[in-house]
Specification:
This protein is an alpha+beta fold. The chain folds into two domains: about 100 residues, Nuclear Transport Factor 2, Chain: A (Roll); about 120 residues, Roll (Nuclear Transport Factor 2, Chain: A), CATH 3.10.450. The protein is built from six helices and 14 strands. Strands 2-1-6-5-4-3 form a six-stranded mixed sheet. It has a six-stranded mixed sheet with strand order 9-8-14-13-12-11. A two-stranded antiparallel sheet has the order 7-10. A hairpin with an 8-residue loop joins strand 12 and strand 13.
Amino acid sequence: IEARRTANSAAHAKLTADDYIHIAGNGLVRDKKYAVSLPAAPKMGLRDLKTQIFGDVAVVTGVQAGTGATNPQDARFTHIWQRRNGQWLNVFGQNTPIRQLTPPASRLKQIETASWPKTSNRDEQAVVDALRRLNDVFAEKNAAAYDVMTAASYLRINPDGTDMTRVAYLKAVAGAPDGPKRSLPELRDFQVRVYGPVGLIVWVNRAINGSTDGVRRSRVFVREGGTWKQLISQDTVVAAP
C-alpha cells in the first residue's frame, strides 16, 4: 500500500511475482509491469480485511478505496500471496468496483455444453475438474453436493461488488426445486495456476449482448484432505471493446 501511495515502482516490484496475474476493475487481465507502473494513489486505504493462511500461501480479501485518477471508487478485492525463498510475493489480484450495474451487464450467454481446458499438470487439471463438477451440480440445483465442495469460509463477490456468504449462496444454488435445470454460460480464456495448497482458475463468462464483453470470474480453491474445495468466487464485468 505504501508503495502504491507514492508510486514507488521499485518497492512495488520487489513484492510482486514475475508471473503475477492482475484483473483490473474493467475486467481486463494485466501483468506485473502494469501493476507496478500504476500512478500514485496517496489516499489509498484498505478496510474489512480478512486473511487466511494455507502453509506458504495467504489469501486476502477486503475493500480498497482511494484509487483512480478521477472519481475514486471503492472496490472489493482478492489477493493471493505466496512465500518464495522466504519472501512473500503477490501472485494474483482482482478488483471489482462497488457500483450499481444495469441488468444487461450481468446477463450471460447460455449454452448446453461447456468446453473445458486440458493441462498436463496433474494439480492444475484437478482444479479444472473440480470447477467442472461444481458447474454440473449448480446446473442440477444440487445444493447438498455443492455444499460438500465448498470450504467453510467461502465468499462470493458479485459483479456489482456486493458479497454473499456461504449460507446465502447455497440457498441460491438450490433455487426453485421444481424449476428447469439451469443452462451454463459460455466459458473462454482460461488461466489455471496452482500455488501449493491453493489453486486458481480464471476465465470469462461470455456476455449475451454487446453492452459488455462478459464477466471475468476467478475461483480460488483450497486443498482440504486431498480434495479441492472452492474458497472464493469473484466476478468483474469486462468492458466492451
